Amino acid sequence: MARIVSLGSALEDIYLIDRDDFGSIEFENRSMFKTLELGSKFDIDKMRFFIGGGGTNSAVTFARAGHEVIYLGNLGHDPAGEAVLERLDKEGVDTSYISYPPRGKTGCSVILLDSKSGERTILTFRGSSAKFDNLSPKDLEYINPDWLYITTLRGDLGTLTNFLSTAKRLGTKVMFNPGVLELANPALLKKTFNDLDILLLNRREASSLVPGDSLEDLLKNLRKLVPTVLLTAGNDGGIATDGKKVYRFGIYDTVKIKDTTGAGDAFGSGFLASFASGKSFKSSLVFASANSTSTVQHLGTKDGLLPLSTKLHPMPIQEQLQEQL
Length: 325
What we know:
CATH architecture: 3-Layer(aba) Sandwich
Number of domains: 1
Order of helices and strands: EEEEEHEHEEHEHEHHEHHEEEHHE
Structural class: alpha/beta
CATH superfamily: Ribokinase
């Protein structure tokens, strides 16, 4: 198995769950919750606490796959931080490199979830996960990981560049799933792609970086920047390339969705969890899809994450040579 560093955010997720008051409506081609009047009180049906954040979500997937996992991120000295540590320790994730910024508070999300439709709105206080410039790339020298998996660093391309250059010097492979704030600076973001081994994006994110009307066109332009690309498209599945072949895949299963929070993290980390263990590119796509499908059937971002030993059913994937695209 591999030694993997997961770099990204850690949050406490508080779910407020209701069947009636959060019902969705359509307004100007957008779906939103019904109006919650100012000054009013609403009784909710359930309240649940979970641990979230892209960095910890990915770390747990890797740990359940049997990898040696180190989480790099920020917490506060508070009850939410203790809850994050407790969950990561329980999952076997190394937390010895976590940092505690002065006066920092652990990030927290409040998730309004309509249990009838599965729709949700997330209110997030980033706290200590708002910035990552206090983290030291030198930690990679001590850890000497096989892989560095990076989720959003809240647009901090300077810190991203420092970690990528250190990883390159050490011979550490890198998989990156950028967030909204990184994508807001496409020219600068694309300059970092030379140091990536695998890039993960969804269709909307890809469209903000390269031209293309179809998934095939987007992939064709992205592969000019990064040799291995995973491009997801929700219910339409996705498309990927390993530099030699192109793989077009659908969804793993049609299931009743409880909560889509963390589905992207489950797909990306699921792929690397399988691939870093020596599985084929195609098999890793199947596990990634299954991991994401399992996650959306559970509340929270971690309860549905699969161990690598999970027996999976076949999933149709079309293959073709990259030159034929």
